[in-house]
Amino acid sequence: RFVATVSPENQAGFESLFHGIPCRRVGTVSSEKVLRIQGLAGLVCLEEEIQALKNAWQSTFAHY
């Protein structure tokens, strides 16, 4: 699984790359400094500040 940012004008082309593989838009880009992912029923299943995610990601590789 992965999350990708795709502009609206490229959405159809991006989704066609995954023909036959489950692929779904889970959100939209906004000016908020938050990653928010909604499940199939529209309920928020993940919501976290971008800075906290960045800190967690960078601390994983701190000694390399």
Question: How would you sum up this structure in a few lines?
Answer:
The chain has helices at 11-16, 50-60, and strands at residues 34-38, 44-49. It contains two helices and two strands; from the N terminus they run αββα.
Can you describe what's shown?
By secondary structure, the protein is α+β, with helices and mostly antiparallel strands. The protein has a domain at 25-64. It contains two helices and two strands, in the order H-E-E-H. The chain has helices at residues 11-16, 50-60; strands at 34-38, 44-49. It has a two-stranded antiparallel ribbon. It is globular. The two termini are 25 Å apart. The model has no long low-confidence stretch (mean pLDDT 89).
Low-confidence stretches: none
Strand order of the largest sheet: 1-2
Sequence of secondary-structure elements: HEEH
Rg from C-alpha positions? 14 Å
Biggest sheet record? 2 strands, antiparallel
3D shape: globular
Distance between the termini: 25 Å
Helix content: 25-40%
Note the main attributes of this structure.
about 60 residues, globular
SSE order and pairing:
Layout: H1 11-16, E1 34-38, E2 44-49, H2 50-60
Antiparallel strand pairs: 1-2
